[in-house]
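User: Fold this, then the next.

Assistant: Folding the first:
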Amino acid sequence: MEPYNLTSTVEFLLLGLSEDPELQPILFVLFLIIYVLTVLGNVLIILAISSDSHLHSPMYFFLYNLSLSDTGFSTTTIPKMLRNMQTHNKSITYAACLSQISFFFLFGCMDSLLLAVMAYDRWVAICHPLHYQVILNPRLCRCLVLASFFISLMDSQVHCLMVSQLIFCTNIEIPHFFCDVPELLKLACSNTSINNIVMFLVSIITGFLPASGIFYSYYKIISSVFRVPSLYGKYKAFSTCGSHLSVVCLFYGTGLGVYLSSSVSSSSRESMVASVMYTMVVPMMNPFIYSLRNRDIRKALQKIVSWIT
């Protein structure tokens, strides 16, 4: 079979979650609801933080940016999948596929880095409360978010560049609902060892290092909290980072599930089902976790609802 560069291909196919025509309307409604809830929930968080001066603090500044990133993360994959279901057209152009890869890693890496920054914020707030305002000053907060963005941008461009160098055979059917890099590597006819090494190294920098930072931050937090003599003080300290810890477990737990499922099993179907949690359910759940566990967010949201009604 003669290989050729993907740039010569006008388009290729996203096979999606299911090819059963009777299941398509159910999946369309389900994922439409998930997307609407994701956008609505994150937009409400953004409006609440923007409109309430009491929420203009480092913790909520990072949450604001996390909501922006989650909205972009979901918008990268779900609208295209919904459009393919509605039109019964599974094709996606080469340029659109590269764009999807670029934005997917941009927002995915941004989520990972922002969660690490938020863990650092909680560490400073609990372990160094008297110096919190001095350490996490507005300039440092902006620098941390900008650094997260530029690292994520570099990560996305590396993945995009690696994929653009691949050579594919005539089989251009991707057994996924978006242009997933591991699936594209499986379809490549050329040697992908360099791609795998580069992407592994990049994944360590953008995935393992933030996760290690989060683990270290919570190790210091727990050690500090256990030294607090008051039971109420311990409860108050844990309650300030409860929402963030829930989001971290959800994000890294489902993300890790994708990679473990792909390494243990070669089934693209299992990996794709795990990806639904990672790319759709997590961004939808984040606003609910923060709004339900955070009294200040709830008050700000109530003001917005009362203003609208």
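Now the next one, as you asked:
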Amino acid sequence: MLTSAVLVGCSKEPVATASHAASSKPDMAQAAAPPRGPITVPVCDQPTTYDRVPQRAVVHGINLIETFLYLGLADRLVGYGGLRDIHRLPPAMQTQLTQVPDLSNQNMNLETLLNAQPDFVFSGWSYGFRQGQITPNGLKELGIASYVLTESCIRQVARERVSLEDTFADLLTLGRIFDIEALAQKLVDGQRAQLKSITGALQHVTHKPKVFVFDSGTDIPVTTGPYAMPHAMIEAAGASNIFADLNSSWMRGNWEDVIARNPDWIVIVDNDQPTPDGKRQFLLSKPELADVTAIREQNFVLMDFSEATPGPRNVEATRRLAHALHPQLVTLP
């Protein structure tokens, strides 16, 4: 007898931690920095110094926008990009962006960026920063500071692994850069406690279900290797990633390996290309996948793109995944 499909949607939204009015951005002439000395933090393993607290920030990428708003920094935003549809954000965060200019819903554009007169840009490699286009070094030459999403550093430097601690590190580092260390620490402490409750409940699990992450693609599936955030979330949820042996982050796999590795569960990443149910129906209708356990038993978990990439919703999404895989051990709030 086939088991029923488990298609899990977003169950809990992060709430912005401060109700700053996005329309209260200072003019460049009035943007006097708070009296704090320079700080130095690692960015992609390189020590990077920030001489002042940024006052005019641009953020590119939906998960990075959520991170920034989660820290209560809406009043520092002078523009954002990489957000195809504002309604993909939690409602409370949508409200905070109503007065902030949308600079680009796709790739970062230098002219549009400079017109916003930022003193700080937060993005990541392959999120907005790209060699030959906009890079942290290029911005530095223009007198604009930047911070790079830790998970994306694999595009530039070797890394041993990606973990949920990367998200926590970004929150804490942004807290230092923007001089809100106490708030950032409180948020991270809460997230770490939630994560510990999940991993603690699963510490004696011996059977780890095999999981295939399906992002997009028909002829060739786009999936995740060991350097993308879903891999860390799968491990924390008491499971294993079928493409853990591939030396990449987001990448192209192949259907032959999916069949041979026979996943027990499939995580469908919702990035609007196409709809999640469209992806599910595609997988179910693909004849060569018919004998794959996850297809035969219709074991699917939906994960929003901003949950599958580093951001404040990673831990809650990990809990939902763990509950789907180990319902007797991990409960939902």
